[in-house]
Backbone:
């Protein structure tokens, strides 16, 4: 046994008892020119183009990963030019797979992204499950592992047993080696191979040797049926399992004809496919059954078999096997006697095996012989028909045989015409014989001969026509269907000089007919002129061609008219767009002039405001000094502890005394000031009134005093942020203040600040559940959207306040949320794309930039600059490490997403580039342009690999197939090209 060293790639030979641990490859053959052979490995040609080197290197690499030093591959380890070695290897192969430490099933037609368990997956339709040799490679190994075309691990036969069992029909106990294979019946094991095929038909038998534990020499050229017969012969020598005869099983009974009308068939199956319906048939052990083996010799099978005679007098042989789920039934095979007094039987051709109830005890087994007529090979002439003619007989009517079509059918030396007998359901085979009259210028006679198998008889027909001498039989043969129907049944014809009749005389013993000519006294009623019929058919065909051509011309004219109209409409649209652009340019120029003027006026206004600010500042400093003095006097009068933190004098700028007292929560001072007529409507520079300040701090008593005061606006708004007292109370979680404000009936529960936010959205964001409950009870709308199009639910979700989320949803909040609004571009955004891990988002704009955003936070990560025109398309590589952008500046740029650096600038297109796409393996990049081409680039080097041409209009989209083997392009020319 030869093994491949996984490190040196050298072949090493071992005796069976010295074999080290090894891995073994199971695969399906690719093209012969791609597979690595024994000679290639001997000569060190490991990098042969094609799938062979992929399997070779992948097997060695995987075996080394699994800690094994050797691997066996059939294409490389067997010298198939040595027939002795090949025969020995085939007989040993099951044992080699069984002894392997690991078996790798490489499925070259399963892509890397395939899900084996998904219905309709490439795994479930792989060629591997349809090949004959892979059945033993599925059953023999202890540890079988499946790999896709990229050597990606899919699973082993243990973890995938359900899927594999469904595909192959092999029960779990045999699939996993729990039960030995010999425990399965012959019919069961044959059924597992029923849907499989091999390149060489003999291999369909040879690949089953190990499964049945038999050996036999390889005889390539013997044919698939003969090889399968020899296999069954070897199996019968080792087992007394009647299920080997349980083939052709059907649920519908087929009738057995009367004696003399039945064709003898074979007793043994011709191929595993005959066992397709026998997967549940198991062998039965009966005490009444003799222990004789099945014995095949002299063309007959000798066996003990219980026979059943039906009410219709037909014979059924009851086999010692039946369905595993019904022990009361056995398989019955139809039988017919060779002769009435003989104990020799045959299985009628075309009759199916059926399930039958077990018979009464008196139906004891009987020794019989069953002929295996299927082994009697028909001779090469078995389906030949012979037509004999006598030159002298035709000479008597002045005729000579001058031509036969097909020419190969004419044996002039033996004066015989040989044709093929058509099967009952097959196509007829016509043979034409041309006879010429001795009179010059006369028309020839053509006799059309055909035969067909009807039961056990051969039915022959002939018809007679005339034709011109210059009409060739080859021309007539090519158009025979136009003449045969009219000539059918006409056994006579006249050429004016001779009225010819033809009869066929059969030979009783052989498929032979004698062609007998006869000169008739009168012409027949109808003579078929083949030349005229051909001319008619030619004329009809020409008329049909003219009509079809006219139809094609009409369609083409209609298409041209439509295209002309489309082009005209497109031209009009372009013209209108140009005029619109020109108008926009004029408006932009006018807008520019106005902005320049506004900029100038603004600069002057800033200077005036700066001067006014300086003056105001002086006045404020003076007012502050006066305020400080007044506050000192106030503290002296009210005996208030004058610590620094108490007054926060640094914040007194713009505050009234009432505003200050409300901010501090001094109830008595607020009440005193209100009694002395303090103005409750005066606001500070931010627009905050005393009521807003007290509501923000949660001073309930102060709020109650201010609400009771004359002139108080309970729903007033601050200037800077537009917050109302209710918004401030809700945002800070002051439920009592919020309830007090709402109970006045003078505040709007849905009031909004300058950002469009409501009290409910603030309370939801800050997590104040009781305030949220209160606002909802008072009729707050949970679906109000602020300027960022966010609702109260949006803020609750963002802050992860689960209880508030449930409150809002129960109150009818819309669960559809806006997560982020990303701003920053200065132009129209033309394309966006997510990275494969969804952590990044790329946007492309008319402002000639690409921006990379963080999807979790909405923050800008990178701004990629470099293009000189509108950016039309962006796309991430599958590994998210690269970003590609396409632009109207006729370039494609490749960026590093981690650093935001430009990696490559790809140039070559002659017009705007509209679409770009990465291949799934990130090795290639495709770009589609208005220059009507698609270009393929190497992402590693930036080099142009191919330019794909063929579209007649601008290309607007490109995309790769998941396996990177195909590329599709779409165009304004209304076509998609693959």
Residues:
């Amino acid at each position: 046994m030869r093994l491949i060293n996984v490190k040196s790639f050298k072949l090493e030979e071992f005796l069976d008892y010295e074999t080290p641990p090894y891995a073994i490859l199971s695969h399906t053959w690719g093209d012969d020119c791609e597979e690595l052979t024994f000679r290639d490995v001997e000569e060190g040609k490991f990098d042969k183009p094609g799938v062979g080197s992929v399997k070779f290197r992948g097997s060695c690499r995987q075996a080394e990963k699994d800690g094994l030093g050797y691997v066996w591959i059939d294409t490389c380890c067997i010298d198939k030019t040595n027939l002795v070695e090949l025969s020995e290897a085939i007989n040993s192969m099951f044992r080699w797979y069984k002894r392997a430490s690991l078996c790798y099933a490489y499925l070259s037609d399963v892509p890397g992204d395939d899900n084996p368990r998904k219905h309709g997956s490439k795994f479930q339709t792989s060629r591997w499950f349809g090949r004959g040799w892979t059945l033993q490679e599925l059953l023999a190994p202890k540890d079988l592992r499946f790999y896709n075309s990229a050597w990606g691990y899919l699973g082993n036969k243990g973890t995938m047993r359900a899927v594999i069992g469904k595909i192959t029909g092999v029960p779990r106990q045999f699939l996993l080696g729990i039960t030995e294979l010999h425990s399965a019946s012959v019919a069961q094991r044959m059924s597992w191979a029923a849907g499989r095929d091999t390149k060489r038909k003999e291999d369909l038998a040879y690949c089953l040797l190990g499964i049945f534990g038999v050996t036999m020499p390889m005889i390539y050229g013997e044919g698939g049926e003969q090889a399968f017969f020899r296999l069954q012969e070897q199996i019968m020598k080792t087992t007394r399992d009647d299920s080997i005869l349980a083939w052709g099983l059907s649920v519908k009974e087929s009738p057995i004809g009367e004696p003399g009308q039945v064709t003898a068939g074979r007793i043994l199956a011709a191929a595993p496919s005959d066992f397709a319906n026998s997967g549940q048939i198991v062998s039965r052990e009966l005490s009444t059954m003799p222990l004789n083996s099945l014995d095949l010799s002299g063309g007959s099978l000798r066996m003990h078999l219980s026979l059943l005679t039906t009410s219709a007098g037909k014979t059924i042989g009851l086999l010692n096997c039946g369905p595993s789920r019904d022990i009361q039934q056995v398989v019955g095979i139809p039988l017919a006697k060779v002769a009435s007094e003989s104990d020799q039987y045959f299985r009628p051709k075309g009759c199916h095996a059926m399930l039958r109830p077990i018979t009464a005890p008196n139906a004891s087994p009987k020794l019989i012989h069953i002929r295996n007529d299927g082994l009697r090979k028909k001779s090469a002439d078995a389906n030949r028909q012979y037509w004999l003619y006598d030159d002298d007989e035709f000479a008597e009517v002045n005729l000579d045989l001058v031509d036969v079509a097909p020419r190969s059918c004419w044996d002039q030396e033996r004066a015989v015409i040989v044709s093929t007998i058509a099967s009952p359901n097959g196509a007829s085979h016509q043979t034409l014989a041309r006879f010429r009259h001795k009179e010059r210028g006369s028309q020839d006679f053509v006799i059309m001969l055909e035969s067909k198998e009807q039961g056990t008889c051969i039915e022959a027909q002939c018809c007679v026509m005339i034709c011109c001498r210059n009409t060739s039989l080859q021309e007539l043969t090519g158009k025979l269907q136009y003449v045969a129907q009219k000539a059918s049944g006409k056994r006579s014809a006249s050429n004016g000089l001779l009225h010819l009749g033809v009869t066929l005389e059969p030979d009783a013993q052989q498929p032979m007919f004698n062609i007998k000519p006869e000169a008739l006294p009168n012409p027949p009623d109808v003579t078929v002129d083949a030349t005229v019929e051909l001319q008619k058919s030619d004329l009809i065909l020409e008329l049909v061609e003219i009509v079809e051509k006219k139809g094609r011309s009409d369609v083409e004219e209609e298409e041209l008219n439509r295209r002309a109209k489309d082009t005209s409409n497109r031209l009009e649209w372009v013209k209108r767009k140009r005029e619109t652009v020109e108008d926009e340019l004029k408006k932009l120029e006018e807008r520019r002039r106005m902005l320049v003027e506004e900029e100038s006026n603004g600069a002057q206004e800033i200077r005036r405001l700066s001067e006014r600010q300086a003056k105001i500042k002086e006045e404020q400093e003076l007012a502050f000094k006066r305020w400080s003095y007044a506050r000192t006097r106030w503290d002296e009068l009210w005996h208030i502890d004058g610590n620094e933190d108490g007054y926060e004098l640094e914040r007194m700028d713009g505050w009234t005394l009432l505003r200050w007292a409300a901010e501090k929560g001094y109830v008595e001072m607020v009440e005193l000031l209100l009694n002395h007529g303090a103005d409750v409507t005066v606001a500070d520079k931010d627009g905050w009134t005393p009521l807003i300040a007290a509501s923000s701090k949660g001073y309930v008593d102060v709020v109650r005093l201010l609400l009771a005061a004359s002139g108080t606006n309970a729903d007033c708004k601050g200037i800077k942020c537009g917050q109302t007292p209710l918004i401030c109370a809700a945002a800070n979680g002051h439920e009592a203040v919020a309830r007090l404000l709402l109970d006045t009936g003078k505040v709007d529960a849905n009031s909004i600040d300058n950002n469009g936010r409501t009290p409910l959205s603030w309370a939801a964001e800050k997590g104040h559940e009781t305030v949220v409950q209160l606002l909802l009870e008072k009729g707050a709308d949970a679906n109000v959207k602020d300027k960022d199009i966010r609702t109260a639910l949006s803020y609750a979700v963002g802050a992860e306040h689960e209880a508030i989320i449930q409150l809002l949803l129960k109150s009818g909040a819309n669960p559809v949320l806006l997560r982020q609004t990303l701003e920053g571009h200065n132009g129209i955004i033309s394309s966006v794309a997510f990275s494969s891990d969804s952590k990044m988002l790329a946007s492309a704009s008319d402002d000639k930039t690409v921006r990379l955003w963080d999807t979790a936070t909405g923050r800008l990560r990178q701004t990629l600059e470099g293009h000189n025109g509108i950016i039309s398309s962006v796309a991430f590589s599958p590994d998210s490490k690269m970003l590609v952008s396409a632009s109207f500046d006729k370039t494609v740029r490749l960026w590093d997403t981690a650093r935001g650096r430009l990696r490559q600038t790809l140039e070559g297109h002659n017009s705007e580039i509209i679409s770009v796409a990465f291949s799934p393996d990130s090795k290639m990049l495709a770009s589609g342009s208005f220059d009507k081409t698609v270009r393929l680039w190497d992402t590693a080097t930036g080099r142009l690999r191919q330019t794909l041409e063929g579209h007649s209009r601008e290309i607007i989209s490109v995309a790769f197939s998941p396996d990177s083997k195909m590329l599709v392009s779409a165009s304004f020319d209304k076509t998609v090209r693959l």
